[in-house]
Recover the amino acids of this structure.
């Protein structure tokens, strides 16, 4: 879809120690907690997190953090995933984005309306779409920008679909989160 673009911002998440190639455990030092606010499916968001947790078929090979759902954001680092009624920010193409990530607050927001001005497209909040928005914005949190990877989750053309993190995206996430 031509207006499937997203805002491009990045957050620096905690980095793995130099030369530390594997995580000790899924709840180890490099976990980032994720709080899902009411109105969104924790299962669908969790599926979005798993795009990265299980990225590229080897969950133990990542250098980037793993993402674990939490009942609050009292433990740092944390991402806050929420639903907001109405329009979000305009993207680089002048369209309203269906989701965004704010690196200053660690907030991922999914908007109920999006699309070209006046932005009256209704955001599908089915599990597949919420999964995609979450995975896409977590990609931004990992430092990735929009890309044109075939089947990739950072490719806005795959908006709402069943795409996953492709090899190049996992490699970029590692690169962006490795000292
Ligand atoms: Zn984006």
């Amino acid at each position: 879809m031509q207006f499937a673009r997203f805002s491009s911002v990045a957050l620096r998440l905690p980095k793995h120690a130099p030369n530390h190639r594997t995580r000790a455990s899924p709840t180890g030092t490099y976990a980032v907690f994720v709080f899902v606010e009411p109105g969104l499916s924790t299962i669908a968001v969790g599926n979005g997190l798993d795009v990265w947790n299980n990225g590229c078929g080897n969950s133990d090979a990542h250098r980037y953090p793993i993402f674990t759902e939490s009942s609050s954001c009292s433990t740092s680092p944390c991402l806050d995933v929420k639903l907001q009624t109405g329009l979000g920010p305009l993207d680089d193409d002048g369209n309203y984005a269906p989701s965004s990530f704010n690196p200053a607050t660690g907030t991922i927001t999914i908007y109920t309306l999006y699309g070209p001005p006046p932005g009256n497209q209704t955001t599908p909040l089915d599990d597949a779409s919420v999964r995609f928005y979450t995975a896409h914005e977590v990609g931004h949190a990992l430092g990735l920008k929009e890309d044109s990877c075939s089947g990739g989750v950072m490719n806005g053309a795959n908006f709402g679909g069943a795409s996953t993190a492709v090899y190049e995206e996992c490699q970029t996430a590692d690169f962006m989160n490795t000292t």
About this structure: Confidence is low (pLDDT under 50) at residues 1-12, 14-29.
